[in-house]
Amino acid sequence: MNSIIHTEHRDVIHDCSYDYYGQRMATCSSDQTIKVWEQNEKGQWIVSSSWKAHSGSIWKLNWAHPEFGAVIVSASFDRTASIWEETAEQKPTASSTPAKRWIRRTNLVDSRTSVTDVKFGPKNLGLVLATSSSDGIIRIYEAPDIMNLSQWTLQHEIICKLPLSCISWNPSLFRAHPPMIAAGSDMAQSNEPKVFVFEYSEYNRRWTKTENINVTEPVHSIEFAPNVGRSYHVLAVASKDVSIFNLKPIVEQSGNTRFEVVQAAQFNDNFCTVWRVTWNITGTMLVTSSDDGYVRIWRMNYLKGFKCICSYKPDSNVNHHDPQAVQLINSSTTKFFKKGVGAFAGSSQIQQH
Amino acid sequence: MSSNDVAVCHIYDKLSSKTGFIGKFVTNEEISLHGFQPVFYSTKDAPTKYANTDEINVIHVSENFILDDEILRSLVAESCNIFYNLQSIKTKSNDVFLQTSRVYRSAIRATLNKLQEAIIDDCGENDIKKYESFITIFYSIECLWHLCEFLLIDRSTMSVVPNLLEWTKFHFPSPSQSAAEMLINKDRDLEFRESYWETVRGLILQGQIDIVRALLRFHSSSETMTFQLAEKELQTMPVFNSHGGLSIQKFRSQWSFWSSALETKLDSGLFSTEIELENIMKLIVGDKQAWMQVCQDSKCWYEYFAGFLFFTQPAVRYFELGTFADSWLGRWSSTKGMRGYTELKSLDLMVLATLKNDMAELISSIQDMGDNKWFVVHIVDLLVHCDQLRISDESNGPSVVALRECLIFDYGTMLMSHGNLWEIGMDYLKFSSSEGLGAREVLLQRVPIKNDIQAMKIIEIARINGITSVEQEVCRVMVKRSLFLENYGNALEWAIRSRDNIYVTKVANIFLNHYCNTGKMMHKDLLSNIGAKMFIAPRLLFLIKYFDFHQFYRARAFSQAAELLVNLLDSKIIPEFFWPSLLADTIPLLEHNEPIIPTKETYIIMHHLESDLIPYLAKTKKERENKKEQEGELNLMNACSDDLVQLLRLACARNLSRAMIIENTLVR
């Protein structure tokens, strides 16, 4: 089953972000608008709000955890990141549903250059977010009163020296894991490591760099895997290929934690640059988007190896878009003992007596 | 890791064919795709070259999910129960596994019946099409499961052929049905029916000798020599029975003796007067020509396979079955003019794999049945339980166990990611790997909350499974949602459940602010029933106590009201914004006909008037001046601040004088 949503954005969509439950979608574009979408009873996606949000291209969007309400943060070329909250307008009559409107609660203007990525932190840290920008600084903001989204304080600035392209919080909610952020740089002209991992020390009240991960090619996207009962962290890095790093904490005698960084897997997408990596909720599958235009789904098998189970190719010819082929592929998205598709072209072939 | 053998799905999108796709997960079971332009730190902002050209689309792709259909949902629920029971069984006996397998199968058959009924009830064209495809899927599942049941799960019977015949009889019921019909009607002119000999032959091919004999007796020439001879031969035909006490060798010699005798009779033309009867006898002795003839008419390769074994290899064992199946299939496909297995249907191949005990092939192909892996999960689980799953190219046990865990994990996460079946998914993940246990927590949090009842349900399931973090999270989400819908009573209830000070304070503030602005308390029923839970947060405690004060006042219990009010004033849990309102409430009590508030308490009121109210009023006044044009959080009481202070001072003074006089009089 697949559905096409005509967004009516006037320019390319840069990011498409889903809320915690996967029931609402927000899209942002070079046309400087944000659109928020919901599903109606029939499962069709309907735009519920659309507004001009910035005075530059909007690169990234991110939803806050629903326990903070319906809140989005947007990062733009116009050097700002904005916090948006959905509010109900006064009901015209008691029975009608209130009209919804997104209100800009605050504008984070500390960056002097394009804000390249923005992410809300794990909810156990409260309402925090981190931005990365072209000037090579990670900024961490916090709303001290989670009920008042118009007050944000810039808590920390972490200087990385290289221009940053992407950022990811470690989503672990495990108490023993201190807050952790990884950032990547897409600077092309140097051989320095391009992935940095920072940890927050409660004792010093500051962020310190714990690791440089040795990826020297420009990094376009990074993401920590959701931590489902693991003692170590898993980070996916999109560069000229996809690398999966395991970060295992080692406690040194001095009490500091360091990480043993092991490259757990590395795979190429048809030898193309990889633009984006994203994990699924359980951290068992990875979606990669690469320069050949394909999107591939990789599945972690029980030996922790990765296998591509399916790929999607954009096609300009409408005839190639036959629904049966789509269904065939879809039925194989979560294959384990997969030997290849084709033996079973639709259930209608089975003889019935 | 090559991606050569990976299925590529072409998706039509004009823009993306120029720009390439970017993909993201929507839920665990759905991904979204859209056209994309790489952005670098150095990218300058300008409209891309695609601006205002092609349509900008987002495409959602997901697997076709059939299990949330109304009829299949009950199968999912029932099979979950069976699955659950199987996991908790302690005694591992053959009977238990056989029993479980039969329960599974009867659930499938019940579903098939329901689907048939739904089609008969004429539920609309789309649904009929859908249900027909479901029937195809689940019919195949039943067919394979039945095979697995007597070949793999039931280890008590040594001989395969009777079971195979039974299985064939079930899946090709037409000979038995027409025979039954003929026997009931008992008309003497049976042989004039076109289907008479077809039915008799069909029965022979399914080894139903007794019914054949009964039918033959109804033939008009049943008294003739030929028929009598046939009757005698059929009567004396030895039948292999593993419990019969005969050894296989002994049986084989008996059989060859009998069949060679029959063959001689055939050769000497004893049956030649009745061609149909002769044909049948030829089948019984395994005459090649006769069998090739019937193969021509067969619908699929295994229709007469069991019958062939019955007359040629009645004592065959399971491990020998593959060889016979292969040779039979070779013969069958050559009479059909087929080359190799390529023209076989997928069900045919799966049946073959089962007969050959090629589990790797079977498991790999039953994953593609379009049943969202319902079958593969349950059959693999059952086979692992009764230790009958051997995958030839895997050297030993652990991989089978891992396979089972992985399948259960997939099935469980899939159910949890689909609206109505998440509770069932929880049950499956419980029996998967340790990752499954972790996934349960993550996925439970992400079950979309449709309404209050579902929120309660999620909390309940979380409690049962000891996932403690979920309750507070769900409550907080519900608070936020209720606030958004301006359903404050609900918000307060959920806030109290969450036991989160911040959320409770926030909602209690809304109640107090509402009171300040309108002079009315919201949701009085709720407030009067909170009880001991008010101690969760100081602000809630204050709200409830203040509400109690109102109740006293309305009941004209003025002295109690006054006492409570003074206690509140001294309690240090008063929100700053509430000072004007609270002190205003003292005025009617101070001005009451008969003095209620004694001197000491009056001093307390005066103290708070000077040390709390006046600084607060001064502060708000300043704030208001700072942002005159903006409407701050003004409440009714703030607006008339100066008058309020005057009134209060006057009331205090008057009450003080009255109270002093009375108190001093009483002492003397």
UniProtKB/TrEMBL annotation, chain A:
PANTHER family: NUCLEAR PORE COMPLEX PROTEIN SEC13 / SEH1 FAMILY MEMBER, NUCLEOPORIN SEH1. WD repeats lie at residues 6-38, 51-85, 267-301. One of its GO terms (cellular component) is Seh1-associated complex. It comes from Chironomus riparius. Keywords: Cell cycle, Cell division, Lysosome, Mitosis, Nucleus, Protein transport, Repeat, Transport, WD repeat. GO terms for biological process: cell division; cellular response to amino acid starvation; positive regulation of TORC1 signaling; protein transport. Gene3D superfamilies: YVTN repeat-like/Quinoprotein amine dehydrogenase. It is found in: Lysosome; Nucleus envelope. Belongs to the WD repeat SEC13 family. GO terms for molecular function: structural molecule activity. This is Nucleoporin SEH1. Its main location: other.
UniProtKB/TrEMBL annotation, chain B:
Its main location: nucleus. It holds the Pfam family Nucleopor_Nup85. It comes from the Eukaryota. GO terms for cellular component: nuclear membrane; nuclear pore outer ring. The keyword Transcription regulation does not apply. Keywords: Membrane, mRNA transport, Nuclear pore complex, Nucleus, Protein transport, Translocation, Transport. It is found in: Nucleus, Nuclear pore complex. GO terms for molecular function: structural constituent of nuclear pore. One of its GO terms (biological process) is mRNA export from nucleus. Functions as a component of the nuclear pore complex (NPC). Belongs to the nucleoporin Nup85 family. Component of the nuclear pore complex (NPC). This is Nuclear pore complex protein Nup85.
